Amino acid sequence: MRKEYDFSKARKNPYASQLKKQVTIRLDEESIGYFKALSEEVGIPYQSLINLYLRDCAASHRKLNLNWS
């Protein structure tokens, strides 16, 4: 390993805007259990499954029907 490195010609990561951002979200136990069970079936971490599902909802502009009675 070198003592010093020259970063004068370095450039920013072009993929940095595509990186995931950590957030805190409150989910009920039933929802977490559903995605954890599904993750064991398909072999994908449950947090990745939740992200894939939310991304699919956003891509297809799916909205909840929130009618309060």
Which percent range fits the helix content? Answer: 40-55%
Number of DSSP helical runs: 2
Q: How would you sum up the major sheet?
A: none
| SSE order | HH
Global geometry:
elongated
Alpha-beta classification: mainly alpha
N- to C-terminal distance: 67 Å
Radius of gyration from the alpha-carbon trace, in angstroms? 20 Å
- Mean pLDDT level: 92
Amount of beta strand: under 5%
Stretches with pLDDT under 50, minimum 5 residues: none
Structure description:
There is one protein chain. The protein has helices at residues 29-42, 46-59. Helix content is 41%, strand content 0%. It contains 2 helices and no strands. It has a domain at 29-59. The protein has 69 residues and is an all-alpha fold.
Topology (elements, then pairings):
Layout: H1 29-42, H2 46-59
